[in-house]
Each structure stands twice: as structure tokens, then as C-alpha cells.
Amino acid sequence: MSAGNIHSEELKPLRRNRVYWAVADGWVLAKRNLVQIPRIPELLVFAIIQPVMFVLLFRYVFGGAIDVGGESYVNFLMAGIFVQTVAFGSVSTGIGLAEDLQKGLVDRFRSLPMAPSAVLTGRTVADLVRNLAVVIVMLLVGLLVGFRPEAGVAGWAATIGLLLLLSFAFSWIGAVVALLIRSVEAVQSAGFIWLFPLTFASSAFVQTDNMPDVLRAFANHQPITQVVDAVRGFLLDQPEGNHGWIALAWCLGILIICVPLAVSLYRGVATR
Amino acid sequence: MANGNPAILAEGLEKSYGKTRALDGLSLSVEEGTVLGVLGPNGAGKTTAVRILTTLLKPDAGRAEVAGLDVLKQADQLRSRIGLTGQYAAVDEYLTGRENLEMVGRLYHLPKKLARKRADELLERFDLTDAASRLAKTYSGGMRRRLDLAASLVLAPPVLFLDEPTTGLDPRSRLSMWEIIGELVSGGTTLLLTTQYLDEADRLANRIAVVDRGTVIAEGTSDDLKARVGGERLEITVSEGSDLAAAARILEAHTHSDVRIDEGRRQTGATVEGGARLISSVVRDLNEADVGIDDLGLHRPTLDDVFLALTGHAAEESEGKSSDNHQQEVA
Asked: Beta B8-17 vs B61-66: how paired, if at all?
């Protein structure tokens, strides 16, 4: 209708294999989610305020009453804060996905000849970047309130690597939850129902030794404790035993189960 | 799509959600380059049918072909040949108009430059160039619909599905959507359009399929369907204080059909034959009986009348769209 129209014969899609499109389409959607982060600043602000409040609460309100052996409490605390921040980030993965479902965007995506995994990888990869940013802010807050890490380059690399892996793995759990319950509000509430016991019945804020037997058994064998103990070891340059390997195994195990599960739920989500 | 095969073909589609039968053996066929209006109240199964035809939903039974491709077995190829604009403008509010279209172009696997060029072209065509760099959340309802429609046209698909494209739009935006849709159709696009607005189907569609409770209960041109409810209707509104019953008796003498009386609106009406000549004799009789008239008119049947005659209930009876509008229609 306007001059210089593209001929419909020119609108030829590129031809590549499936793996190429899984990556390329995922990247298109990751970029979509990333450019939105500064456009909805309130989301990022709340993502930061909440863990900052936990830092202040535990550092100044509860910290004095919590005995963690020889280490200063703020040094003990920060590993827990990093892990909690990253774990809670999985709720935004779920909320973002539930919003796409509610607004009909997923219908639009599913009517396109794109890789079916891309909506999920785009979301989880973007959340990985956002989580990394929030963790860096938490590190700065920690330094302000007296956190004194003793990690070397290897320790920092291991810390960042493990936190990112945890972030990615938990985002996929968030995706599975969102695809199962779909409503934004329900996803928000459900996220905290499984995350609260997991983060508080762990070594994130206290030593598990003082917990009652059953709770201690749970706390010592769940993934958050393994990741916290590993990160704490890396940051404070203490022997972390085999917590690092167990944490790695947990994250990979979660991914092996949740990635195919989420993709299959996504394919079926509108096929009901 | 050669050999004169229909561009859209559905045969015996069935779909249930639990105990609710959303589709109960729905069949339809749309010739290439024509427009089929699928008309029905909320919950008739229109959206379910569109979702099956656009590969979003698997039917429990039946088969469907679009652009010569099987919607189940050749879903991947089919997705490059169709465009879908759903009931709720599926645009990303936190992307600009241009970003929305570019993203869709990239996901259709167009090269980056071409996706960009196509986005600009569509923005211009849909009168969105000035708003191209604004976030879609600042758009009016009509602009969002136009952007959504533009997104479904990125690959210039030969077959287009529009699910209630003007629901919730103000009259002016509605007219502008109608104009755009009209242009697309004159460009040769095959279109399946669902609507619960009778005037919309009347205006845009070559043929109309009336859907109720998951199946097509009547199909034909607008005129075919109107012919089904008989000829023209004569409606008389008597003036205040005049004898409505007398007017109805006079009307009855001039018709073979049932005379309807509406006391509240002081109206009486019946299906009549004979046109203008009949009017003059009815008016003469009314004058002789000294019945005052506020209004008297001959009406061609509307699709509302058609719907009422076919289903026994009005088209928009089940109107009152629920607020949980993300739910698909099922009941």
C-alpha cells in the first residue's frame, strides 16, 4: 500500500537446523526480556530491596543472638544472603512466564515457527543476568556492613559459577511451577511456599547443629545447604569439603529433570 | 493450495474440556481468497476452532487442513503460512511497536535487516510510524489491535485468522480495523474471522457460518441466511394513548405470520410481503381506525433475527464477558 513495498517473495525465512534455532530464538527472547529490565525499574528495585532488608535484619537484629562458632556473623551471613537472593529470583522467572501466558503472548509465540524451548531459555537466561546484577549489589551492601571475604581468584570464580548455576536451575523450577499453575498471583504465592522452608531450614542464616533431629536431617541434605556451605567455604577460604561437588550435582540434577519437563509442559500448555 | 482445494478445511472437529463439549463435530470450508465469518455467541466454540486451525490446540477427533497442510502432521510448516490475531492483543507492552514487529520477524526467521525493513513497512501501513518508538503499553486499544494485526502479517501469510478482531474497540477504531481488513481481503488473503457482532460479519464476510454449541448450525451468504427467516418485517410504533391492540389487529389482517406485540415500546410487528403498496394500505387502515402512529417502517431482517430464528436465543444473550479474559472460551 505504500511505495517500495517488500515483495512477498522476498520474505524468505532463513534455513538452519533445529539446534541453531533453539539458540538463536532463545537469544531473541533473552534480549527481549533484558531490554525490559530497565523499563520496569520497580521490579529491579524490589528485587534488590528485599535481600538488602534481609542483610540488615540478620546483621543488626538477629545477628547478635546467633552463635556461629568462631566466625563473625556478617561473614557467615553473606553466603546465605547470596544463595537466598538467587533462589528467590526464580519467583520472577515464574511470574514473567505466567504474565506471558495470561496476556496471550505465549499463544502468539506458539503460532510462530520458532523453537518451542526458546520462550523458556530466553526467560531463564535473562533472569540469570538479572540475578548476577543483584548479587553484585548484595556484595557491595555486604562490604558496607562489615563483610570481609577472604577468597582468592579461584574462590570468587567458584562462587560466581555456583551461584549462576543455582540461579539457572532454580529458574527452571520456577518455570515448571508457572506452567503448572499459570496465574500470576498464584505463582507468586506458590514460589514462597516452597522457597521459605528451603532457605530457612538450611545453613543460610544459622548453623544446622542446633536444629531438632528431623529438621536437621532435612536441612543437612537439601540443596540450599549444600550450596551455602560450598559458597561459604569459597568466600571465607575455608575447607568446603565435598559440598561444592554435591551442590554441583544437585543443580545439574534439577536441570536434567526440570528442563525437559518445562519444555514438555510448554508444548502442552495451550494444547489442552 | 492448487487444484481449487479450500484454503481452510475442517471436518468433524471435536474437543472437550472435562465434561464440557467445546466443539461437537464442527465442519467448515473456506475457498481461497474469500472471507468466512464465524458467527456465534460467547462460548459457542469459535475460539476453540481457531486455536485448532492455528496449531495451538489438538482436537480430540476430526481433521483439518489449512493452506493444504495438515494442522497436526505438518504444524511446523503451516506456522509459516498463517497469521493469527487473537482475541486479546498479544503485544509485548514493554517493547516499542517497532521492537514488537522486529522480534516477530526474527522469530519467523527472517534475516535481521529484512525483519527491520518489514517492521517499518508494516508500521507505516498501519499508521503507527509516529508511535513506532513508544512502548506498546502507551498505545490505545485500537493501536494495539493494529500492531497485533501487523505482527500476524509479518510473513505476508496467504491465510489469516482473526479471532474477534474488534471486540472491545470503540466505534471509530472498529471502523478503521474494518477498513484495514477490507484492504487485506482485496489483496487476496483468505480470511477466517470470528465475531459476535452481526454487523461485522455482514460487512466483512462473503459467507457466514453460524456456530452454536460447538457446531455449525447454518451456513451461507448473508442474504441466504436472511432469506431463511422470511421476508421483510413491518414495525409500527403507535403514539401515546393510542390503541396498540387495534394496530395489531390491522397488521394481522395484512399478514400470514405471527404478529408480535411489545407493550412497553408500544410496538407491533410482523413479517410481511408486498412492500410499499402494503404500507400504504396499512397506513390507510390505521387512519380509519384513528390509531395515532409515531413510527412505521419496513425492515429487512438482520442477522440478529437470523440468529434468533436459528437458535431460539439471541446472539448476544450470553454476553457479559467475564473479567478473567485470559481464560479461553469453553462453556
From this structure: antiparallel
